[in-house]
Amino acid sequence: MSAKDLFSAVTIGNLKLKNRMVMAPMTRNRATEGAIPQAMNVEYYRQRASAGLIITEASQVSAAGVGYPGTPGIYNEQQVAGWQKITDAVHEEGGHIYIQLWYCGRISHPDLLPDNQTPVAPSAIRPEGEAITYEGMKAFVEPRALEINEIQEIVSQYKNAAQMAKQAGFDGVEIHAANGYLIDQFLRDGTNTRSDEYGGNKKNRMRFLNQVLEAVLEVWPSNSVGIRLTPENSFNSMSDSDPQAHFNYFITQLNTRNLAYLHLLEGDMMSAARNVDYRALRDAYDGIYMANNGYDKTRAQTAIANADCDLVAFGIPYLANPDLLYRYQNDQALNEADPVTFYGGDEAGYTDYPFIKEEIAETA
Ligand code: PHB
């Protein structure tokens, strides 16, 4: 029998993970003023530290990178102090934690940005839909196409964020190159119609990701850096003319980097459609492959047994079940997630999902 199952240990970079279950990055909009993590965030991550690895909610690398109210940042000392309490708590429980670095680009709104500036993107293409602002939903605006010197400025913000992440005690960083945020806006040709060295062909569309990666690699060893990609997720008004070929190229290029892992959100968050062959992408990648999107225990076990992936990231199951590992190991029922409390609010629907051992004690 293969020793590889969801509950078996695996080494990524310099970390020995106790199991192959990863808490997926999830936006929860519960940071305080100044994008600083607070006490309830510490408790939330501490509760989930039995995961082999936690990837934090996406955290903006500068004030101009924000796209939603209440998301945390990782660009100044106050934020580092807030995150330090989280990394300490997770480490005290024997867990491991990476921080996800993001810059939202066109998925933002002047109401959210310093000096009410216009959101930026590779090209001036307005997303369909609405931004979430402090005053409720407002239509997305047409973003401004970045100048080359501004692209370099954002790359240096990623480097600063990588340094802050190190200072805050994280085990590594995940570069968020997925879901229609700035890096993904460069990667996919539905949002990148530039005619300079950042657009036009797949090599040029990957240039911004490569520069961000190189900036982060000045701070972190490559085996402490992961990357998340979404070849076909249409969320945030995204599209690409040939995701199989383009992402096969991007992934093949990443082989030379010796990263901690490659993390793919497979398929589409908006529908059950799957038009990309993920096994082919997985086979094109030489390192550790983390799969995500709609996995439950059975699917995860099958995928690991078939070597379709090495790690599985669980989102909503982890949101609602701090003791997901115990529940899966013991074939216990799961708490149901409450979507009303996903984004923003207080401890309700955040740190009050029960552990099964508490439930057993209460009913005994
Ligand atoms: C969201 O806030 O809905 C969100 C944020 C980051 C993601 C995906 C979704 O990568």
- Rounded to the nearest angstrom, the radius of gyration is 19 Å
Q: How many distinct folded domains? A: 1
Q: What is the SS-derived class?
A: alpha/beta
Oligomer: single chain
Binned, the helix content reads 25-40%
Number of strands: 14
Question: Per the principal axes of the C-alpha atoms, what is the gross shape?
Answer: globular
Q: How would a textbook summarize the main sheet?
A: 8 strands, parallel, barrel
Side by side, the strands of the main sheet go 3-4-5-10-11-12-13-14
Helix-strand sequence? EEEHEHEEEEEHEHHHEHEHEHEHHH
Tally of helical runs? 12
Please explain how this structure is put together.
With 364 residues, this protein is α/β, with parallel strands linked by helices. The protein has one domain (10-363): Aldolase class I (TIM Barrel, Alpha-Beta Barrel), CATH 3.20.20. It has twelve helices and 14 strands. An eight-stranded parallel β-barrel has the order 3-4-5-10-11-12-13-14. Strands 1-2 form a two-stranded antiparallel sheet. α1 packs parallel to α2 (77-92) and α3 (148-167) runs parallel beside α6. It is globular, with a radius of gyration of 19 Å. The relative contact order is 0.14. The chain binds P-hydroxybenzoic acid (PHB). P-hydroxybenzoic acid binds at residues 27, 58, 68, 178-179. Residues 27, 58, 68, 178-179 line the site of P-hydroxybenzoic acid.
